[in-house]
Specification:
The protein has about 290 residues and is of the alpha/beta class. The chain folds into 2 domains: about 110 residues; about 110 residues, Nucleotidyltransferase, domain 5, CATH 3.30.420. The chain contains 6 helices and 9 strands, in the order αββααββββααβαββ. Strands 6-5-4-7-8 form a 5-stranded mixed beta sheet, covered by helices on one side. A two-stranded antiparallel ribbon has the order 1-2. The chain has a two-stranded parallel sheet with strand order 3-9. Strand 4 and strand 5 form a beta hairpin. The radius of gyration is 39 Å and the shape is elongated. The model has no long low-confidence stretch (mean pLDDT about 80).
Length: about 290
């Protein structure tokens, strides 16, 4: 009788090896994804904040070089102006001496005519020097004004651009902004009108402008967004706490965004989400910021 052939004893199962290989590939993919995500927050080994500071430093350095170049252009003009003024004074002294000689000398008519001719020439030279000095003074004044203008621009901190990302704003919601900084808050009625008050608890409780602002936002179904400066956490706590206690703002109706730096707040990226209202009559407003 023929023997039944055995099955399975001579086969090698490859399933465990494939499982290990798949697991290893999955781990490598996770490591690659993690490294890729971490690299997106940096630029050539630097954080975005360091890159921004480097760009600002480069811009200020370029402005400084332009100012130095303008000062170098003005220096020769100042030297030449001083020389012209000195020569003008000498010519005036010579002219005065010749006039005195003509009036006092008892010489011949020909000598007097020659002296008068020399005097007229000197007067023409003095007139030319005076006109040239006036032109140079105007050029120096223009250079000084340009240097002053560039210095003011260099000393003005860059604007703080507020971005909608991370604010948790649904489509169609209108956001009304309150800037919180050290010892004060600023209410943004719209892009042109702002009101500033102290952030002390006794002032926030009693101030009618902030109470009116909160009521209007509530009536319009808007959302409060606090822009918190580096030193504005205490002001935010006082203002946001009062809004929740007295006007029934839910935590979801209040958002906060960091506003680092000292520059003017720029809400241009919030145009489609920006809530606006006219400032009530009698409310004190901040003066408009002059354009740079």
């Amino acid at each position: 009788m023929a023997r039944r052939r055995g099955h399975g004893s001579d086969e090698i199962l490859m399933i465990p090896f494939l499982d290990i290989l798949c697991s290893l590939i999955g781990v490598l993919v996770l490591i690659i994804v993690f490294l890729t995500v971490s690299q997106t927050s940096q630029t050539e080994g630097r954080t975005q904040e360091e890159v921004d500071r480097a760009i600002l430093y480069k811009s200020l350095n370029q402005r400084k070089k332009k100012e130095d170049a303008a000062a170098e252009q003005a220096q020769p003009l100042l030297t030449k102006l001083a020389t012209l003024e000195k020569e003008t004074e000498e010519k005036k002294a010579t002219a005065a001496r010749l006039r005195k000689l003509v009036s006092e000398a008892d010489a011949s008519k020909l000598l007097s005519q020659n002296l008068l001719k020399e005097l007229d020439n000197l007067l023409l030279e003095i007139t030319g020097f005076t006109q040239e000095a006036k032109t140079m003074k105007a050029q120096i004044a223009e250079l000084a004004a340009e240097i002053k203008k560039r210095t003011l621009v260099a000393n003005t901190p860059p604007p703080v651009i507020i971005q909608p990302a991370g604010a948790g704003t649904p489509t169609g919601t209108k956001n009304f902004f309150v800037e919180a900084s050290g010892g004060k808050i600023v209410m943004y009625w719209n892009k042109e009108q702002q009101t500033q008050i102290s952030s002390a608890p006794e002032v926030i409780i009693a101030d009618t402008s902030y109470e009116t602002f909160l009521k209007k936002v509530k009536e319009l179904g808007g959302k409060l967004v606090f822009l918190i400066r580096d030193d504005g956490l205490g002001s935010y706590n006082n203002a946001a706490g009062w809004a929740q206690q007295t006007n029934e703002f839910a935590p979801s109706d209040i958002a906060k965004l960091p506003a680092p730096g000292r520059g003017k707040i720029d809400l241009s990226m919030f145009d489609q989400f920006l809530g606006t209202m006219p400032a009530p009559e009698g409310v004190p407003l901040l003066p408009p910021t002059p354009a740079p």
